[in-house]
Design brief:
Length: 104
């Protein structure tokens, strides 16, 4: 049986894998920079590895209001209106909120 992952569940799973803590030589935890997290999330969402996110890849696992909001946001982020988000278009979402964790 296929279980649908809610948007929150998907984000938690992706951020858990992206936000793994690396220990420095002095054993102090170090978290990845937000830009690194954004790039990693883009790579994980780009299932077919064509270096663009389709609307289906961008909205994977979302339902209801979250799905509708994500579809509208996709249209806004797709500045060249080619039906896919490049990494540059995708990361613009996070540059507006410097330091924000990635959310598709």
């Amino acid at each position: 049986m296929i279980r649908r992952i809610t948007g929150i569940g998907l984000m938690a799973a992706l951020l858990a894998s992206v936000g793994s803590v690396a220990l420095a030589q002095d054993d102090k935890p170090k978290t990845p920079a937000p830009a690194d997290q954004t790039a990693e999330l883009f790579r994980k969402l780009d299932v077919n590895k064509d270096q663009q996110l389709s609307q289906e890849e961008f909205t994977v696992g979302l339902q209801g209001d979250m799905l509708e909001k994500a579809k509208a946001e996709f249209g806004t982020l797709d500045t060249n209106k080619n039906g896919g988000l490049t990494y540059i278009e995708y990361k613009a979402k996070f540059e507006k909120k410097e330091g924000a964790a990635p959310k598709p």
